[in-house]
Write a structure and sequence with these properties.
single chain, 6-stranded antiparallel β-barrel, 5 helices
Length: 251
């Protein structure tokens, strides 16, 4: 019996450790929101995996939260908030309402099975430098450059962040200087510190994942949620109890 108790406690701890390593919450909440339109933006041509060039809108998205179970307090006013796209392989439509799951940075993009911790930290540095406060207005070139840089970090497979080459590349921006600004930001994502709070993602398996900002939450990549911490405590308690019982029996 004592061997079984200890084995169960260790199994529980292993499950919690797995959740923590993946940066996932034990219980995810939902965010229901309507896509109202584009804020500041530009246009650019993009090619994925050396495929054909397609026209893309690159910029910040305006949404309004209409429901959901998440306890996140989104940065914005009256339910309105701003977001950047995380994955160029998925779409959302204007004036449509979607349901997303809340999650840490590593949960996106769902089309690629999530991102690495290194990529998530690069995105946090990018936002630290370019857009640490989602209530501040951006110019069109700023918004377009930030969006292009996000896509580059998420999609580039070579490890070299170059907007003109690689597994994702861009050309012919509608605003002169957009690609140069995006590249200048990318050149610093491995050298500058993280200095931003509350950056998170809303994920959907079938639709576009979005990067948002929430109120007063540290921007670490894999913050354990309360339910995860509770499970961790339960596992430690179970393991300690099993060992105490074993000690008493052995005496």
């Amino acid at each position: 019996m004592k061997t079984r108790n200890i084995a169960f406690a260790k199994l529980l701890l292993a499950a919690v450790a797995t959740m923590l390593s993946l940066g996932q919450s034990a219980v995810a909440g939902t965010i229901v929101a309507r896509v109202d339109g584009l804020g500041a933006y530009g246009q650019v041509q993009m090619s994925l995996d050396n495929g054909s060039w397609v026209n893309q809108y690159a910029g910040i998205i305006q949404l309004t939260q209409t429901g959901g179970t998440s306890d996140w307090d989104l940065v914005g006013t009256g339910g309105a908030f701003l977001a950047f796209c995380v994955e160029p392989r998925e779409n959302i439509a204007l004036n449509q309402t979607y349901t997303w799951n809340d999650g840490p940075m590593t949960a996106a993009p769902t089309s690629l099975g999530g991102m690495s911790t290194a990529q998530a930290n690069q995105l946090l540095v990018l936002m630290s430098m370019s857009f640490p406060d989602f209530t501040v207005s951006l110019t069109n070139i700023q918004a377009a450059a930030i969006q292009i840089a996000i896509w580059e970090i998420v999609e580039e497979k070579s490890g070299v962040l170059n907007v003109l080459d690689g597994s994702i590349k861009f050309r012919r921006p509608s605003i002169a200087g957009t690609l140069e600004l995006a590249q200048s930001l990318l050149n610093q994502v491995n050298t500058q510190p993280v200095n931003v709070t509350g950056i998170r993602v809303m994920t959907s398996v079938t639709d576009q994942d979005l990067m948002i900002q929430i109120v007063d939450t540290p921007a670490d990549v894999a913050t354990p949620e309360p339910a995860t911490l509770s499970m961790l405590g339960l596992g430690l308690f179970a393991l300690g109890l099993a060992k105490r019982k074993a000690a008493r029996r052995s005496c």
